[in-house]
Design a protein that fits this description.
Strand content: 25-35%
Largest sheet: 5 strands, antiparallel
Number of domains: 1
Helix content: 25-40%
Order of helices and strands: HEHEEHEEHH
CATH architecture: Roll
Shape: globular
Radius of gyration: 17 Å
Number of helices: 5
Oligomer: single chain
CATH superfamily: Gamma-glutamyl cyclotransferase-like
Amino acid sequence: MSNQSGHVHYSWVQTDNSDNLDSELQQVRADESMFYYFAYGSCMCPVDLKRSLGEKTHFYVIGTGTLKGYRLGFYRISPTRNCGVLDVVKDPKASVRGVLYQLPWRLSDRLDKREDVPQGGYRHEYVDIHCNGKVYKNARTYVVVDKLLEEAAPNDWYFNIVLRGAVTCGLPEEYCWSLFHHMYQLQQRNQGRLGNGIALRS
């Protein structure tokens, strides 16, 4: 995947769920309480999720999934990332693609901290996720509490981490391109506003 704006170039990669990883994960699931977690933004990238949770997370990926009745939008400005970050909002005509994890409960607080739940940034929402021909009930995802009235642009770092997660976890190519164009258009709109002396307000 390439573009003209200086972002990282990607090749399309499908994740590999080997028999060994499956058997190891089954053992973890037997030993610990687990919960389903649907990631649609930067947490789609197991490498970036590891940074917050403190351990490898590709081990816990069930597969790519679909959240029906919602759409993506950049309705929050993250104080730590200093840019627009992803949210999902209800929309009966839309759907969101992402990555379904099954995580140990011991990682729950760390995930909440990453999503600024203690500070009121995001909150839990429990949804049904379609994945691998099955429906996973009551999967946790995160939605912005105080939404912006208008989408805010991601910075290049967030742009690349979201796109890398989408590509490397095997989301459909068409969806990845749609995500790319959405983020790119927001950046272009923001640059135009800044050029005219108009700053986004949070």
